Amino acid sequence: MNRRASAADFAAAQRVAHLGTETVFAVSSEAAALAVQGKTIYPFHLGDLNIATPENIVEASLRAIRDGKTTYCPNAGIPQLRDALAEDVSRARGLDYTAGNVSVQPGGKPVIAKFLLTLMDPGDEVLYPNPGFPIYDSLIGFFGGVAVPYTYAEGSDRFHLDLDGIARQITPRTRLLILNDLHNPTAAECTPVELERIAELVLEHDLLVLSDEAYFDVRFAGASRSLASLPGMRERCVILYTFSKKYAMTGWRLGAAIGPKPIIDVITTLNVNIESCPNHFVQYGAVAALTEDQSGPREMMATLKGRRDVALGILNATPGINCLTPETTFYLYPNVTGAVKSTGCDGHESFRRLVLDATGVSFCTRLHFGHALEGEDQYYLRLAYSGVSTAQIQEGLGKLKTLIESYN
Ligand code: PMP
């Protein structure tokens, strides 16, 4: 029988009540609407890049289209790409993955859904970061799990994950941990000792982990580490890999799930059920991305570093704003508690609106990355500098500084 006689009778499935969203996109639409009305907008809201995909990647994909790579392809992705990913990810993490450990995906994001669908039963508890990427919370609830937030605390030189909070919240029902080291939005990363402590907890409580490594290769100094490379973790971690950030390929929609073969095999069966296979010809571009000249990503990182430094200089010269210097991601997460108070705003959203209306500087706040937890009394913004030029940063954040100064 047809469940829907007319649009007016539309009754969504019960699980839809638990479905969240990424409110960052709403900020983006709001800013776009203001731009159409003629307002100058400085877009710090979305983690997208205004940097072109390197030419060799574009060329390889175009060639693939002309060569007829426009058909279905193997459900887990083309063998060349699975090999190249296994090799690249293994080299960077000191691991020994092979093609059988790789399921290519239409973006990094689908790995979150497929990891949960593969491993989480209704009622299972899943630890996830808050503040954090909002899709974790949304999908855990949508698929019938119980989302248990852990948080990050601001230290004098970095944000650090609340390990005690994680340990305290583990119960006999806890099955999964989502870790986004090199963290969106705070840009936090664990020390080796912290990663070891997480590994201990994972082993002690028999957990499986989604290691969201979307920003693993987006860093200005030092080297990234993966939880998967710690003893005992390779068999317990599924890595979320994405081409979006490192190769400026957000709109291409290409990523991968990488982990133990039995889990990856189920994820590939989900591919069969949901999209059949990842987009065929873009995978040839991805092979070129991984195996050819790396000057594209190197130049991108140099550009991003220049932007980061300009943004940090202006933010830290603004009264009531304090911003730590992250070595990873393309986000800044300034503490703006003083500025919120000096402008008389009563919270994150009123401050965001005040600044947007007065200056055109558009950003997200802590509240776009989860809900405030008990005891939170500081205000934070998330500024993405991946989609703004240095000139826009100077002009936009200069206006923000002048605005805040006018209240002091
Ligand atoms: N994880 C995190 C932490 C992210 O910030 C993002 C993108 N903003 C993703 C996953 C997914 O990115 P994509 O689907 O473009 O690979």
How would the blueprint of this fold be written?
Blueprint: H1 24-36, E1 42-43, H2 55-66, H3 79-93, E2 102-105, H4 109-119, E3 125-129, H5 135-142, E4 146-150, E5 152-154, E6 159-161, H6 163-169, E7 174-179, H7 192-204, E8 208-212, E9 237-242, E10 255-258, H8 261-274, H9 282-291, H10 295-316, E11 331-332, H11 337-342, H12 348-359, E12 361-362, E13 364-365, E14 381-384, H13 390-405
Parallel strand pairs: 1-12, 3-4, 3-7, 7-8, 8-9
Antiparallel strand pairs: 2-10, 5-6, 9-10, 11-14, 13-14
Helix pairs in contact: 2-9, 3-9, 4-5, 4-8, 10-13
4'-deoxy-4'-aminopyridoxal-5'-phosphate (PMP) is lined by residues 47, 107-109, 133, 180, 184, 212, 214, 242, 244, 250, 255.
Task: Give the spatial strand order of the biggest sheet.
Answer: 2-10-9-8-7-3-4
Q: What is the straight-line distance between the termini?
A: 66 Å
Which structural class matches the secondary elements?
A: alpha/beta
> Percent of residues in beta strands?
5-15%
Can you tell me the CATH topology of the largest domain? Aspartate Aminotransferase, domain 2
Radius of gyration: 22 Å
Unreliable residue runs: none
Gross CATH architecture of the largest domain: 3-Layer(aba) Sandwich
